[in-house]
Write a structure and sequence with these properties.
By secondary structure, this protein is α+β, with helices and mostly antiparallel strands. The chain has helices at 4-18, 30-41, 84-91, 111-117, and strands spanning 22-25, 45-51, 58-63, 70-72, 78-79, 99-104, 107-110, 121-127. Strands 4, 5, 6, 7 and 8 form a 5-stranded antiparallel beta sheet that branches. The protein starts with a helix and ends with a strand.
Length: 128
Amino acid sequence: MNDPLATMMSLILNNESVGKSECLIKPSSKMIRELLKVMKENGYVGEFEEVEDSRGNYIRLSLTGSINRCNVIKPRYSVKGTGFEKFERRYLPAKDVGILVVSTPRGIMTHYDAKAKKIGGRLLAYCY
């Protein structure tokens, strides 16, 4: 497994498209938990909990059925606080539809929060 973040996003998308109500995400990491927290705050996924296992922790995630498309952004482009429009046009279907997830010096947040705070970072994923 080379990219756990990409594996998580494809697992969520596959389980959403089949119609399942929950999925298990393995392995668990701090970045995955923060990304899920941002997606939960924006209403794309439900509650999640980390379950301790003897072979490593995993996350049990409840799905809400509100994701049409989600994926990681590779390469992880660097973007300034005012340069999000180009990537919004590239990855999101319409204006004000969906989110871009950005890793900033102040933590992982949506591009709307980063624009409001006028800080840049690296693009991680998109979801709509």
